[in-house]
């Protein structure tokens, strides 16, 4: 789940404006004011915004897995989901990550269990910085906070081999579409010119994933930004040149937020531009609670993630104060 007062959040330009502004995600990823039992939770099911009272204390239960499975099928009624959240636990915990990773015909059948070694951490507690450029000095605060963007720009985000992934502190395992070749582009929130426009045609790293292919990406500490994925060789853009596909947003080891990390899936840009919403799922691979944020293709199901209608809602996505973070990303997720 995500928290209020984030320093991340990226968004598009106002139509006709030359100055980038946030689209409402600026409150995410700080670790204060966590969503607790009794708080209101939002989700979009079959295009309808629904809400229920959170009954989950943060401990993994089969109820959490059952809720995710129910929503993934997009056949459950919102009232049924609320009932599941309120239901008592009666058996051992199950991971929601494994419960739905094999149910999608459009996402890869690969799962975190295929390459379990990538989730381990160095036994000596020393994380690799091989391949990264220099670190930049943090500046500003709040929405305009600028962390490490790499020197040269973008060198804080690198592709790494599977065998080396566990040696880095912040890592993505990206699982490609099961049917098509997709492009996966990552950027810093702050662009090369020092402005908050990193998603306007900039790329710290662009990958091409063949059908079913898996790749790994490592991030230097105190990095904030996002990534987008789309079928074909380029990402779609809106009328102002901003990436307008489904996004994953990240904030790794934020030094202004006591080293906390956060992430979420967002369809705000795509929906604001009236363009296609691609499916994407992000799960914390090492969490017993399987902290996931996902949107299925065309936003037929939205769980713990952002749509345009939810752009002002706080507390969506995932966060962690762990020293190392391992996230698994499924693109073309259904």
UniProtKB/TrEMBL annotation:
<dbReference type="GO" id="GO:0019863">
    <property type="term" value="F:IgE binding"/>
</dbReference>
<feature type="compositionally biased region" description="Low complexity">
    <location>
        <begin position="90"/>
        <end position="117"/>
    </location>
</feature>
<keyword id="KW-0732">Signal</keyword>
<dbReference type="GO" id="GO:0005576">
    <property type="term" value="C:extracellular region"/>
</dbReference>
<feature type="region of interest" description="Disordered">
    <location>
        <begin position="90"/>
        <end position="120"/>
    </location>
</feature>
<dbReference type="InterPro" id="IPR038903">
    <property type="entry name" value="Allergen_Asp_f_4"/>
</dbReference>
<dbReference type="Pfam" id="PF25312">
    <property type="entry name" value="Allergen_Asp_f_4"/>
</dbReference>
<feature type="signal peptide">
    <location>
        <begin position="1"/>
        <end position="20"/>
    </location>
</feature>
<protein>
    <recommendedName>
        <fullName>Allergen Asp f 4</fullName>
    </recommendedName>
</protein>
């Amino acid at each position: 789940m995500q928290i209020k007062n984030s320093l991340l959040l990226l968004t598009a330009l106002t139509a006709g404006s030359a100055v980038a502004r946030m689209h409402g995600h600026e409150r995410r990823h700080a670790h204060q004011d966590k969503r607790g039992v009794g708080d209101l939770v939002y989700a979009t099911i079959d295009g309808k915004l629904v809400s229920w009272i959170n009954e989950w204390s943060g401990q993994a239960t089969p109820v959490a897995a059952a809720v995710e499975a129910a929503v993934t099928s997009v056949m459950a009624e919102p009232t049924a989901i609320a009932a599941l959240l309120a239901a008592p636990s009666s058996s051992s915990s199950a991971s929601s990550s494994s419960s739905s990773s094999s149910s999608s015909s459009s996402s890869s059948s690969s799962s975190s269990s295929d390459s379990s070694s990538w989730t381990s951490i160095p036994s000596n507690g020393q994380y690799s910085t091989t391949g990264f450029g220099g670190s930049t000095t943090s500046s500003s605060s709040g929405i305009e906070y600028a962390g490490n963007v790499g020197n040269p720009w973008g060198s804080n985000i690198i592709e790494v081999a599977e065998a080396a992934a566990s040696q880095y502190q912040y890592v993505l395992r990206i699982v490609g579409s099961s049917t098509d070749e997709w492009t996966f582009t990552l950027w810093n929130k702050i662009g090369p010119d020092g402005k908050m426009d990193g998603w306007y045609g900039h790329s710290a790293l662009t990958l091409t994933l063949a059908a079913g292919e898996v790749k790994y990406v490592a991030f230097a500490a105190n990095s904030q930004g996002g990534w987008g994925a789309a079928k074909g060789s380029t990402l779609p853009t809106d009328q102002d040149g901003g990436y307008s596909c489904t996004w994953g947003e990240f904030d790794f080891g934020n030094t202004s937020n006591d080293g906390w990390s956060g992430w979420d899936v967002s369809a705000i840009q795509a929906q604001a531009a009236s363009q296609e919403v691609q499916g994407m799922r992000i799960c914390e691979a090492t969490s017993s609670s399987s902290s996931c944020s996902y949107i299925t293709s065309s936003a037929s199901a939205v769980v713990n993630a952002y749509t345009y209608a939810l752009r002002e809602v706080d507390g969506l996505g995932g966060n962690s104060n762990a020293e190392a973070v391992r996230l698994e990303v499924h693109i073309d997720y259904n």
